[in-house]
Amino acid sequence: MASAKKSTVRTFATKNDLAKKVRTQAIDLLNQQLADSLDLYSQTKQAHWNVKGSDFYQLHLMFDEHAAHVVGWIDLVAERAVMLGGYATGTVRMSAAATTLTDYPTVATTGLEHVTALVDRWSSYAASTRAAIDTADEAGDQDTADLFTEISRQVDMDLWFLEAHLQG
Questions:
Q1: What is the three-class DSSP state of 148?
Q2: In 20-141, where does DSSP find H-type helix?
Q3: How far apart (Å, rounded) are the C-alpha atoms in residues 39 and 61?
Q4: Closest Cα to residue 92, out of 11, 132, 7, 34?
């Protein structure tokens, strides 16, 4: 979790036995994933609300189910940052300023347009989640790595469900 910039992570006293440097790096990583998770949630809901076409009903339900998965991750990620003595940066404005996901295309209307947009964002999120597993593990925080591993399995499944609409 090496970073060239000086950390601006806000921390509090804790008896957690991980070294402060490890905790600070993990908190920074968790807050980045929190920003991306909040953005992924809102973009998935954007598709859920605005999808049109003959596949409306099935896509509307699937997008809502995927958004529900992200809500669970948001809480787990934010609470892990706080468990480590950190401060979760999870407001809409905080996440908008920090997200690494690309903006959602406001021109998307049809089911396939929304699916395509979500595949791009979910695949990006899958990649950053896998990178977070490695980063946390290399820093010596196996619990955070395990949290990201748990999330990664569901992200891959949800991505598979989305991609299946574009294949065949």
A1: helix
A2: 20-50, 56-83, 92-98, 111-139
A3: 19
A4: 34
Closest CA to 49 of 121, 96, 109, 116: 109
Question: Could you tell me the residue range of the domain that residue 52 belongs to?
Answer: 20-163
Residue range 84-96, pLDDT digits in tens? 999 999 999 999 9
Whose structure tokens read 């609470």? 79
Distance CA 112, CA 90 (A): 30
- Is residue 14 situated within a structural domain? no
Cα 76 from Cα 82, distance rounded (Å): 10
pLDDT at 35 over 50: yes
> Is the pLDDT at 61 greater than 50, yes or no?
yes
Total number of domains in the chain = 1
